[in-house]
Design goal:
Layout (H helix, E strand, L loop, with lengths): L2 H20 L3 H6 L1 E10 L1 E3 L2 E2 L8 E5 L2 H12 L11 E15 L2 E14 L2 E16 L2 E11 L14
Amino acid sequence: MNTLELQHAVEQFLYAQAELCDRQQWDEYLACFDPTAEFHVPQWDSEHVASTDPKREMSMIYYATRGGLEDRIFRLRTGKSAASQPMPRTLHQISNVRIQDRGQGLLQVGAKWNTHYTRHGQADCYFGEVSYELRQLDAGFSILRKHVLLLNDRINAVLDFYHL
């Protein structure tokens, strides 16, 4: 795959993953993540410095493996998440996708993102930067790590993975 084909394929994968989240197609969304995938949203330590080690520092969200996402989605599906009842409507947008080939089928991908959401008649927006570690597969890609840097100063809802 040449550079342009790789860029297009990665962008299409990220767009599809975002759309699966917007449509709340949770099984397909989870399938984008490797079973060992880490999902991390660090907390800000100061105005311009975010925490870096989720095992030793505070995080807004940290799942060491896909199992954390699976547990969260189980609570959404069974209505055991009062903070997510009713589920908000979301619209994820991804831009400025940059790819670095790390060899052996591994890619480091950076992007900018924003998510518009509405719940109980109130609309808001989250935005920031995201970095992924992806593994190239015969049939696409698998997320090994998703690191989301939330740039909002204030959040008006309980933060959850579907906001990012």
